[in-house]
Amino acid sequence: MKTVNLSILRTVGVFAVGGLLVGFMPLSTPGPKNVINPGDSIQSQPGKLRGYVEILFTEPGDPCLQSQEKSLHPGTKVVIQNSDRQAIATGTLEVGTPQPLQAGFSKMTCKFPLVVENIPELHDYIIKLESGEEFPYSRKQFEQKNWQVELTLFR
């Protein structure tokens, strides 16, 4: 019987055991590498949308109280939809604060802050308020506005 140096087998990576051909990866061989770069994924970093919904009332009085009577109030659902109108992220309106429209005007607005997190990367979006109003946006528009929106409603 012929003697075989085991270091040769490690280099070759194949040897016969009991009539079977067996292959192995030497310990010095690096393991598999991730071939997908994080930037190549469909969703890189989910977006976080901030801003407010501003309501302008033509009637005198506290616009934040009036808005609560007309279906916009703290906790109102804000839904981000894809172009097929499927919900992809949700958030809610926070407590609104009355603010003067402009100096010299008697009308006021109510600004409800909003935050919607974990918005996946898509080309087109629809911001839909629970009360039915819709605002179309593209990802490019969100990025240009630094993920800050100002939605205005007239009542």
Concise structural overview:
The protein is mainly beta. It has helices at residues 6-12, 63-69, 139-144; strands at 14-17, 20-23, 47-56, 77-81, 87-93, 97-100, 108-119, 124-129, 134-138, 148-154.
What does this structure look like?
The chain crosses the membrane at residues 7-27. Keywords: Membrane, Transmembrane, Transmembrane helix. The chain is elongated and about 40 Å long. The chain contains three helices and ten strands. The chain has helices at residues 6-12, 63-69, 139-144, and strands spanning 14-17, 20-23, 47-56, 77-81, 87-93, 97-100, 108-119, 124-129, 134-138, 148-154. The termini are far apart. It has a domain at 47-154: Immunoglobulin-like, CATH 2.60.40. It is 13% helix and 41% strand. Strands 3, 4, 5, 6, 7, 8, 9 and 10 form an eight-stranded mixed beta sheet that branches. The longest helix has 7 residues, at 6-12. The chain has 155 residues and is mostly beta strands.
